[in-house]
Amino acid sequence: MKIVQVSTNTIPVPPKDYGGTQRDVYYLTEELVRRGHEVILFAKEGSTAQATQTFEYPSNNPKEQLDFIIKNMPEDVDFIHDHYGIVAQANPPIPTIRNSHSKGVSGVQLPVYVSRMILRKYGKRKGFYVYNGIRVEDYVFQKNKSKYLLFLGRLIEQKGVHLAIEIAKKTGKELIIAGPLNDRKYFNAKIKPHLNKRIRYVGSVGGRKKQELLAGASCVLFTSTWDEPFGLVLIEALASGTPVLGFRKGAIPEVLKGLPQLICDNTRDMIAKVKNAKRFPSPHRCRRYVRKRFSDVVMTDQFLKLYEKIIKGNKYKLIKNSKWNKRKARIVKQNEEMKEW
Prior knowledge:
38% of the residues lie in helices and 15% in strands.
């Protein structure tokens, strides 16, 4: 198949540090190409994914970006996978899905979410869901663990960093906090006063440093208190052979369904499980779990099945008077005028 992947213009594909959406685009693009499909990627300047062809956005204006995509869209495309939204909202006369990596979306024909919970609660059961996937081999595996706990994520209140600090204190464990500082007020009030030799903030991490922290931790604390759409850190930790504890919120119970001993009802429950680490699954079991359920191979399998289902099942309606067709007609007219001139 000839498949178009549409990324955002915020972070290159793949991202160097933070960027869950762009990492999904990267893994999916490379796995599709490995299987012999032709992939055209629209992404931010500096993207290096091994697509068949890559177009880098020339501006930050969404309207100009849409025109750019229309102008460079091959005529014989079989499917468009839009992780951004601007293409799906234009209703092109090509089977198109809008992959939402957060909450519900509207104004598109075929939304796809990253968990069943998001599809049900925010997508109103309209559309599909496909779980995120990662390339397991990209993650360092370490059987023998250090004694520290790890929090990895954005430093905002919804991610519950203050709860991770509370858990570390009440269990007497060392805690390493890593991630981008997105809320300075929250950091100064709830995190900074507790930093010392045993509770350390090491900043935003990526690449080898991130992998080493994940692989070396005795346990990762996923203390998110909101309806987490998926929780990529969950599977990144498990791929490193590291158990990860998460609250029964959002999609966390879905992701950890096969490892129920890692799901916590509250902070007290998480403290008890940190103290009783002998009940954690082994490092090898953690990694096998991700390979079986959340690898890039599994994710690509699911998306290819969805592409074929939509194409063969006539689930895509051709819209004659779409925003896409109107813009394309204008672009064609401008090109003809340029030639005449």
